[in-house]
Amino acid sequence: MLESMNVSILIVSGLVALSIFSSLLSFRIGAPLLLVFLCVGLVAGEDGLGGLHFDDVQAAYLIGSVALAVILFDSGFHTSVKAFRAAAWPAISMATLGVVVTTSVVAVPVHYLMGFGWLESALMGSILASTDAAAVFFLLRVGGIHVRDRVRSTLEVESGSNDPMAIFLTLALVGLLASGAKASPLMVLADLVMEFAVGAAVGMAGGALIVLALNRMGFERGLQPLAAISLAMVVFAVAGVLHGSGFLAVYIAGLVAGNAQINAPETMRRFQDGLTWLAQIVMFLTLGLLATPSEFPAFAPAALAVSGVLIFVARPLAAWLCLLPFGFKRNETAFVAWVGLRGSVSVLLSIVPMMMGLAHGRDYFILAFLVVLVSLGLQGWTIGVVARFLGQIVPKRIGPVERMELEIPGARHELVAYRIVADSLVARGHRLPRWAEPSLVVRDSRSYSAFAAGQLQPGDTAYLFARPERVPHLDRLFASAAPAAEADRRFFGDFALAPGIHMKELAISYGLPVPAMDFDMSIAHWVIRELGHAPGIGDRVTLGEVELIVRGLDWDDSISEIGLAVEPTAVDAPKLPVFQTRTELKAMMKRWLKKGVT
Fold first, then answer.
1. Taking every annotated instance into account, which residue ranges of this chain make up the domain Transporter-associated (predicted)?
2. For residues 523 and 525, what is the distance between their CA atoms, to the nearest angstrom?
3. Beta-bridge partner residues of 147
4. Where is pLDDT greater, at 132 or 33?
5. What is the C-alpha separation between 144 and 33, in angstroms, rounded?
6. Considering only 99-103, 321-325, 573-577, which range has the smallest mean pLDDT?
């Protein structure tokens, strides 16, 4: 007994360690890390080198559900209210209507290729309808791909919020198949509203409870993150007991807690980063062990065909229909369509038909597993290339910054330390804001006050207090300016304009077609009005023969600098003959009507 227990511990810990060390190879060859974790599970399984036999679907579903709840809580915790507000309606549209459209389109090839009935085909479509939060967050945040704010926010909020819809559809269709399709559409709709309403309510209440507990209970520093994640699991379970969506509840709880003022937020984030990685590894290993590669060849042709329809038809159609009302450009819609990675959620949902004893139960799992492999391999491996092709990557306007952060318990400020580099703005004499006066300067191993140190010099280390939201502004002052010139030339326009300049001055200086009614409006306000949404770095608006580009945002998210390109750049030029915008569709309709009249 004791020996078998030790062997089990050795196997589990060894697989986790192998997955962690395999990440080094993943970064070198550019493979999606989550695909590597999945493959480690396959290699360790009964058809692989490890020969481990694992077929407990209920245990796999339990492990996957808990891991997914941890991931979604962390996703919400790291999503700012600003990002949520900027992308709420597009993301919600993608998370609801987009899931339904994807389910409907994917059901067609499944019906004809697999010989399933239409209800069974719709079940397969719902299983594959959800994008994977773990994959999307990893590729956009950890993978070093810095895309435009609105596009990134839409993808992140969608990936964190579309799981409840896909899960609900899957469970509803499984219930219909198990009961012989006796439930009415009105009952299904009522259940959907109940799941989302209860989940949202429990999530908001649970998030407020987490904030209250962390700030008022006085937990020891090491126990605080454990208290937060345990309460998050309580929120997840309570929502489920009340017949609500536990996944939506835990995501909203994370969103509430992550945007509140809590004690030791950096400690929380560091703990959750490690815990989320562990959850991803365990979930993908478990799902990989559950699969049997010898069963794959018989399903491979159908899986490739379904993957093709999902990636090149269903997801693009859903993205276009859902984003059309919100003014997304063609290339932005194309990128959102491409970053529709399927992952653990689809494989996890495919276990449900097996648990319920439905016909073709194992077929759902094998087909979903193969589609996930294709999606992670094709879309995950090419996301950087596609982002560059579509002009969605925003180059960094500052160089490397040497920054350290220290938490101050119970305070709303951080102690930030910067090492001064030679070509930074500060080293070249730029004055610091009054709220950023250094408290201590270390020079040549000796400590000085700000007054005694005088002008900061290369090699100095400056310690100062700042509110967390103002730290990015300090980064621009202390960072190397080397890459900025290259970034400015290629992406941010020929030169910079102050955001407070009036449009009349711009019109007179460059002979631009500015209506007289806009003369007294500042450039910043005019750009925001034309964009129709909160500005993000890299957003651009064409004015006559020039282009105005948002170069930078201040600590309060107001525009701090606007670039002017003398000739409109090709960054937003449509790269694909699809995904027409509202304006383009209206113009096409006018041309068709004009031809019809003539």
1. 488-568
2. 6
3. 393
4. 132
5. 13
6. 573-577
Enter the tokens of residue 442.
Answer: 């270390």
Q: Cα(555)–Cα(452) distance, rounded to whole angstroms?
A: 29
Least confident of 377-381, 406-410, 532-536, 542-546: 406-410
Residue 502's φ and ψ, nearest 5 degrees, are -80, 150
Span 510-537, average pLDDT: 89
* Distance between CA atoms of residues 261 and 552, nearest Å: 26
Query: 1 versus 243: which is more confidently predicted?
Result: 243
* Sequence letter at residue 377: G
Is 242's pLDDT higher than 80?
yes
Report the alpha-carbon distance of residue 132 to residue 159 in Å, rounded.
Answer: 6
The angle subtended at Cα 42 by Cα 40 and Cα 46, nearest 5°, is: 125
Say which DSSP state 328 is in: -
Which pLDDT band holds residue 118 (cuts at 50, 70, 90)?
very high
Tokens of 377: 């391999």
Stretch 89-93: mean pLDDT: 91
pLDDT surpasses 80 at 22: no
- As given in the structure block, the two tokens for residue 517 are 């009614």
Confidence bin at 272 (pLDDT 50/70/90): confident
Mean pLDDT confidence for 47-64: 85
Dist. CA 545–CA 524, nearest whole Å: 18
**Domains present along the chain, CATH in parentheses:** 12-141+149-389 (1.20.1530.20), 403-482 (3.30.70.1450), 491-565 (3.30.465.10)
What whole-number distance in Å separates Cα of residue 553 and Cα of residue 536?
8
Give the chain's mean pLDDT.
Answer: 84
Starting at the edge strand that comes first in sequence, how are the strands of the sheet with 495-497 ordered? 495-497, 559-565, 546-553, 540-543
For residue 40, give both structure tokens: 């480690």
Residue 221, SS3 per DSSP = coil
Are the C-beta atoms of residues 65 and 56 closer than 8 Å to each other? no
Q: What is the CA radius of gyration of the chain?
A: 26
Torsion, Cα 68 69 73 79, to 10 degrees, reads 40
Q: Taking Cα atoms as reference points, which of 420, 374, 373 lies closest to residue 401? A: 420
Integer Cα distance of 76 and 206 in angstroms: 13
Strands 414-419 and 461-466, sheet pairing: antiparallel
What burial letters (b/e) apply to 520-544, b meaning 16+ CB within 10 Å? ebbbbbbbbeebebbbbbbbbbebe
Helix (H, G, I), strand (E, B) or coil at 443: strand
- Residue 476 φ then ψ, to 5°: -65, -30
- Hunting for tokens 């895309």 — which residue is that? 147
> Residue holding tokens 């993205």?
319
Q: Tokens for 200, please give them.
A: 């949202």
Residue 3's pLDDT band, with cuts at 50, 70 and 90, is low
Helix axes 163-179, 185-216, angle to 10 degrees: 140
Q: Which two tokens stand for residue 435?
A: 């709220």
Mean pLDDT of 574-580: 89
Angle between helices 149-161 and 163-179 (to 10 degrees): 30
DSSP per residue over 106-175, as a string? HHHHHHHHH---HHHHHHHHHHT-SPPHHHHHIIIIIS---B-HHHHHHHHHHHHHSHHHHHHHHHHHHH
